[in-house]
Amino acid sequence: MVAEEAQKILGIIGLQDNEIRTFYVDPTHQGKGVGKLLYNKIKELSSLNNAEKLIVRSSPEAEPI
After folding, report:
1. CATH second-level architecture of 2-56?
2. 26 Cβ partners below 8 Å, 6+ apart?
């Protein structure tokens, strides 16, 4: 999924099975709800596919979600 505004990509999120594989929000748009919007959409999609949980792998350098 892609969040965009005026043909500019603000953020992306990708799901494989029940694992979030890609999650990125442009630094200039962080803290403005873009990540929350993407996460809620992927969560909604997962529940429609009867996923019981979502897995998010991260690194120590990642921003909290």
Report:
1. 3-Layer(aba) Sandwich (3.40)
2. 9, 10, 11, 34
The one-digit pLDDT tens for each residue of the chain (65 residues) are 999 999 999 999 999 888 998 999 999 999 999 999 999 999 998 888 888 888 888 888 777 76
Return the structure tokens found at 3: 């969040």
Alpha helix locations (H) across 1-65?
Answer: 34-48
Residues 65, 50: Cα–Cα separation, whole Å: 23
pTM passes above 0.70: yes
What is the pairing mode between strands 8-16 and 55-56?
A: unpaired
CA distance 44 to 59: 25
